[in-house]
Amino acid sequence: VVLLIMGFLLSVGVLQYNSSIENSKRVAFQSTVLNALSAAESYRQKYGEYPSTATLNLLFNDTAYFTTKPINPYTSQPLQATTDQSPETSSKLGYFYYNVKPDGSIEVITNPVVDINLASGSLAGGSLPSYTVTFTVKNTSGSVISGAQITIGGRTVSTNTSGTASVTLPQSSYFYSVNKDGYNFYTSNINLTGNMPVTVTLSPKTYTVTIFVMDANTGNPISGATVSGIGSRDTTDPNGKLTLTNVTAKSYSVQVSAVGYENSSKVITVNNNQQVNITLSRASCTITFNITNGANALVQLNDGSVVNLDSNGSESVSKPCGEYSYMISKEGYNALSGNINALSDITIQSVMAKAEDELVEAGEVQIALVYSPIANVFNDFLKNSPNRGIVIRQVSSSSDQITILQIVKTIFSSAKSFSPSEIHVVAIGAGGQNRANGNKGGGSGFRTWDEFTNLPDINEVLTINVTVGATTTGEGQPTTVSIPSYIQTITASGGGHGNNPDGQNDGSRSQYGTGFAASVNGNGTSEAYDYLEALPIWKELVNMQVYDNGIGGGGGQSSTGVQYPAQHGAVFLLIRGVVYY
């Protein structure tokens, strides 16, 4: 009897133990399936449709959805959805059938049965406590976000005006996602073992915005237009294009300005990658003619308009800023013609010669106007050349106002007129000093250049703004030059210090970097300053051995052991054309 009673009690204990294990598996299976369906719902919110069976199985391996692969407690293997409805498969515990129907909804069958709408903790054969998780959703600035959709445990809730939403679920581990238009999709996991708050920070979506700025009349791109009010303040490239990346989704008031154009503004609403076209209308520029001997002369512009000069040979006309050509005629005088690049108010000055003063072409000449504290090293060169000349400006900085004809007459004093064909501007930075112990030379100043795309009237007053790089105890200072309406600021960097001796010619352990027109070579030669498009006069200057370690030369010693200090930079205005007498 005792043995029978003991056997009965043991069998009851085994049944209770097996029932407990079975219930634990059922609870784990329910939690796993609900998490899988939450992932499917999150996918639908992000992409507009439920994932296919194959895609859902791939999501189980995606760390954006699951930090660890979901495990089927009945097989102890990673959970797998199937579309197999055969009795042999569907009769097995841990069976998870998932399929997207033609109408876009999903069909789910499980063994054991899982109530996918279950919101309480009750299960057949046992129960789990339920807890409330309260979500607070904010943006990166800390402001709450209302209307954010949170999917968890097969349920979807939305945040209220305070940015919060609550949901009560059975104790378990859950995958959840948060979705809101204009923000990046967010996913994470929680282990719900009690009432708990969860704060989610959504980052705004960003896009690429490409802005094209064009002339309102011609449709031509506008280079150098300044765009502000969206992204960082920047300018358009030669194609009138500006590309902005990582632009937050919202509305922007964009301002655009360009020399010679009226300012414009436009509201841009960014909610995807987009291209925006902005047109600018030409501003009004005043063109003033002051023509010696031009009393009552007639000015004809290429737009068909006519200007009658007054008794003093002067008159002004308002035109859309831009490029024009003109012809000035007067009985008994040679006609004058030229081009106008009117980006702002501009004055055209010239002299009309009497018809009997016939000009004689004397051939092509080339002239170099040099700005540098050591420009006088060129004083004795090209003096006797019939078609070359050097004009010296021994300065370190200048805002020089001069006409092309004045430069020409400095060399060819009897010249009556000049017809330019090419004008280049070249800048050379200052050389870098050698290292303190003197055994590593500095690099020579870098060379950069630009050219006039539009040639000025020979009597137009040009403003040449120059800052010549000076030597220091370290790196050489840069040289800058600009000529409004013709050359935007160009910069030639200084050579590196002996510790980092980069330059047009690098310094070396024992020698300085050779500068321009050097009489004694260190490391490299002056030919490094030549460039493919250079005018012949520049190539001649390159090979003039006129000054020690050269303009912009680095500090250090030569191959013969002579020590040379770093040298200042320079600016060259190179002019090529035909002179008339």
How does the SSE layout of this entry go?
Blueprint: H1 2-47, H2 53-59, E1 71-72, E2 77-78, H3 87-90, E3 95-100, E4 106-111, E5 122-123, E6 126-127, E7 130-139, E8 149-152, E9 155-158, E10 164-170, E11 172-179, E12 186-192, E13 196-202, E14 206-215, E15 226-228, E16 234-235, E17 241-248, E18 251-257, E19 264-269, E20 274-280, E21 284-292, E22 298-301, E23 306-308, E24 314-320, E25 322-329, E26 336-342, E27 346-351, E28 361-371, E29 388-393, E30 397-402, H4 404-411, E31 417-428, E32 447-451, E33 462-467, E34 479-483, E35 487-492, H5 536-542, E36 556-557, E37 563-564, E38 570-580
Parallel strand pairs: 7-13, 14-20, 21-27, 28-29
Antiparallel strand pairs: 1-2, 3-4, 5-6, 7-10, 8-9, 8-11, 11-12, 14-17, 15-16, 15-18, 18-19, 21-24, 22-23, 22-25, 25-26, 28-38, 30-33, 31-32, 31-38, 33-34, 34-35, 36-37
Short description:
The protein has about 575 residues and is mainly beta. The chain is built from five helices and 38 strands.
The total count of strands amounts to 38
Distance between the termini: 143 Å
Spans of 5+ residues with little confidence (pLDDT < 50)? Answer: 1-17, 118-126
Whole-number average pLDDT?
86
Helical stretch tally: 5
Q: What's the main sheet like?
A: 5 strands, mixed
Helix and strand composition category: mainly beta
C-alpha-based Rg, rounded: 41 Å
Approximately how much beta-strand content do the residues carry? 35-45%
How does this structure look, described?
The chain is mainly beta and 581 residues long. 12% of the residues lie in helices and 39% in strands. The strands form twelve sheets. Strands 29-28-38-31-32 form a five-stranded mixed β-sheet, sandwiched between helices. A four-stranded antiparallel β-sheet has the order 9-8-11-12. It has a four-stranded antiparallel β-sheet with strand order 16-15-18-19, with no helix packed on it. β36 (556-557) and β37 (563-564) form a beta hairpin. The longest helix has 46 residues, at 2-47. It starts with a helix and ends with a strand.
